[in-house]
Amino acid sequence: MFGRIGKALWEALYGLYFFIFDRFFIYPIMRAASSVCQITFMNLGYALRTDEEKIRDFTEKWIPTTDADYNHILLYEKCLSMHPSYPSLKGISLLEIGCGQGGGISWLKKTRKELSALRGIDPVVVDSMNGMIRKGSADALPLQSATVDLVINVESSHLYKNQERFFAEVFRVLRPGGHLCWIDLRHDYEVQDPYTQSKLAGLVLVESEDVTAQVVEGIKKTAAKYDKMLEKAPWIARLFSGSLRETYCAPGTHSYNRLTTRQKLYHCACWQKGAQ
């Protein structure tokens, strides 16, 4: 009995620590490290299945597989691949919610010149990219209603304090017929929550996929890169090396093991706002 209580208490304290760390410490640390380590992406990464030729063919036109950001970019492309017109996004107005340091926005600006508009929203703006990225909250988007064709959200929504409001805001800013492409992780007991929350917001599920295994394979690539970066990082980043390794789910960490044992799951989905 006491063993179960102790384990539950440890899990609760562990979760509370990383809840606080991810929300209040990770961005200042990453800002300090980014100038030295050239960090542009903060997602876990993705490794393609053999049958995902469409994603592979498009991505490798723009970036070699040996590039340090390759697996991070694949996570973006996997998310975008859920859109019915992928890989072309011609004439589409795109908004990324939770765009972090702007790595995804930079990639889209380079590879999707056919977009009619490209914007990003994040609570901490490291680089506004000439106004392309604005400061804002996912549960109170600083945009007018029905002004966006496609919202993407990459490994971000699990940090939101009001996820129901996030989906409601996405519904509000989407034009009728617009799409939300989303990719993120949840505890096994929470994995259905985004599907319930999006439905309550009025979004209609188009497609979803469990991509946990591909993310685990991607982590093996990205974590090796980050481990090398930590060796050269400023002292403040090295001071939190254990917490940072948990954040990017390095093999051997508790967070990595929760993915391999499927205590946490990684899903990708696309929803549509109905025509009105």
TrEMBL record:
GO biological process, one term: sterol biosynthetic process
Family matches, as CDD domains: AdoMet_MTases
Entry keywords, A to Z: Transferase
Superkingdom classification of source: Eukaryota
This protein's GO CC annotations: endoplasmic reticulum
Short name of any one Pfam family annotated for the protein: Methyltransf_11
InterPro entries associated with the record: Erg6_SMT_methyltransf, Methyltransf_11, SAM-dependent_MTases_sf
GO molecular function per UniProt: sterol 24-C-methyltransferase activity
Record domain Methyltransferase type: where: 95-181
Family annotation (PANTHER family): HYPOTHETICAL LOC100005854, ZGC:194242
Family of the protein in this entry: Belongs to the class I-like SAM-binding methyltransferase superfamily. Erg6/SMT family.
Protein name: Methyltransferase type 11 domain-containing protein
Taxonomic lineage: Eukaryota, Metazoa, Ecdysozoa, Nematoda, Chromadorea
